[in-house]
Amino acid sequence: MKTISLSFTTKKHGYTIFIGEHLLENIVEYIPLDNYSNFFIITDTNVAPLFLPRLLQGLPKNTKHIAIAPGEKEKSITTLQHLWQALIDAKCDRKTLVINLGGGVIGDMGGFAASTYLRGVDFINIPTTLLAQVDESVGGKTMINFGGIKNNIGTFTQPRGVIIDLTTLKTLPKREFLSGFAEIIKYGIISDVIYFKYVTKKHPLKFTTRELEKIIAGSCAIKKSIVQEDEQEITGHRKLVNYGHTIGHAIESLSLETSTPLLHGEAISIGMVAEARLAEKCGLLSKEAVSTIEQAFVMADLPITIPKQLQLARGVKSISIGRTTTDIDYSPVKGITIETLLDKMRYDKKNEKGIINFTLPTDIGKAEINQQPTEKEILEILLTIL
Ligand SMILES: NC(=O)c1ccc[n+]([C@@H]2O[C@H](COP(=O)([O-])OP(=O)(O)OC[C@H]3O[C@@H](n4cnc5c(N)ncnc54)[C@H](O)[C@@H]3O)[C@@H](O)[C@H]2O)c1
Ligand SMILES: [Zn+2]
Questions:
Q1: Is 245 a known active-site residue?
Q2: Which of 23, 152, 321, 336 is the least crowded, having the fewest Cβ atoms under 10 Å away?
Q3: Is 13 a catalytic residue?
Q4: What's the rounded Cα separation, in Å, for the pair 329 and 76?
Q5: Is 54 marked active-site?
Q6: Ligand 1 atom index nearest CA of 130
């Protein structure tokens, strides 16, 4: 088992990330359960049948839980209200420990519910997707989507602990696993060339559990060192983790308007390749480094150009008939084009004073925040991924 400890000066508390196998059923060894009178698990209906019984084995008999529907659509104010109500119905007091068991949607929303209920009760994260294990569960951002904008309402609240049980990855669909691996490769590019070489030496699915443990611990350690320096995004240092995300988020949100959306890691894989090329255009990165980055994503079976069907895609709309909701294709064409991409990037919430802001690599293992290429340079690069 590996452990990583974080400490923050702002709120004078720290916590530990535990990484290993079969930790779920032995939670008492990692979290001081005696400090709490109530335990409330927040999970989703995919994850509950897989892992809830194992987790309940190690918790007191009075533990309550709620399983919400899976998916990003649930990261909403409506679901959040259900969570608050469920906490009230379960008579949760200030001595409650909320346990978030699931992917990033559960971690973000469960963390937000806990950080606002009774002005904040303690919570821990038990992330069950690779993306949530190496990224979402570490760093203390809790949030929901509101008004059609992603991740715009939330708090900075650190969990009391993070338990990463590697056995949960066995049931994760391959596509979700590879999507999470894109963030792992990102950590190598932005901060550690030796780590980059290690994680790209073979196909992500070929790593043994022991190697994966080391890789996940490595990603958590890199994220820790970045967020500890800038817990609440004040100095800007935390923007380092945004590499690939300026273009990647635009691709992701446009793809979500179609019937064949990309996963987050797939969109940022294309974004990281495009932004590496942009760094080269700005004279920051060598041609060789760009091609090493491209090869890393290709070898991990991640996309590096926008799939053709997304460029021609039509819109998708949810309609309700009786008690069922169905997604239907409809015109007009909603495909990803240069114009729609640039438009999304112009309105990115990370921009300052209307200028599109990038974090760009300057070598493998190093990156610079606050880079502002011209729109002409950006446009030329976007042409290479379409
Ligand atoms: N707070 C942060 O700093 C931060 C960072 C990165 C991402 N995020 C957020 O995380 C979310 C994405 O997280 P995600 O990719 O984990 O998505 P997710 O939570 O939607 O999980 C993906 C799917 O996998 C299922 N699942 C989860 N664990 C499983 C397992 N072990 N076996 C089988 N199926 C499993 C889920 O039910 C879901 O259908 C986004 O909302 C994103 O904004 C937040
Ligand atoms: Zn990301």
A1: yes
A2: 321
A3: no
A4: 23
A5: no
A6: 16
2-172 and 176-385, same CATH topology: no
Q: How many residues does the chain have?
A: 386
Q: How many CB atoms lie within 10 A of CB 296?
A: 24
* Predicted confidence (pLDDT) per residue in 12-51, tens digit: 578 999 999 999 999 999 999 999 999 999 999 999 999 9
Assigned CATH topology for domain 176-385: Dehydroquinate synthase-like, alpha domain (1.20.1090)
Q: Where are the domains of the chain?
A: 2-172, 176-385
Is residue 249 annotated as a catalytic residue, yes or no? Answer: yes
Instruction: Quote the ligand 2 centre to 153 CA distance (angstroms).
Output: 17
**Phi, psi values for residue 49, rounded to 5°:** -65, -25
| Rounded distance from Cα 261 to ligand 2 centre (Å) | 16
State which CATH number among 3.40.50.1970, 3.30.1330.30, 3.30.300.30, 2.60.120.380 fits the domain covering 2-172.
3.40.50.1970
Cβ(186) – ligand 1 distance below 6 Å: no
H runs (alpha helix) in 300-351: 308-311, 338-346
pTM of this prediction exceeds 0.70: yes
Tokens read off for 24: 């779920």
Secondary element (H or E) of residue 385: helix 375-385
Counting ligands in written order, the one closest to the CA of 165 is 1
Number of the ligand closest to the Cα of 245: 2
The residues near 217 (Cβ < 8 Å, ≥ 6 apart) are 2, 4, 19
Q: Are residues 381 and 277 in contact, defined by beta-carbon separation less than 8 angstroms?
A: yes
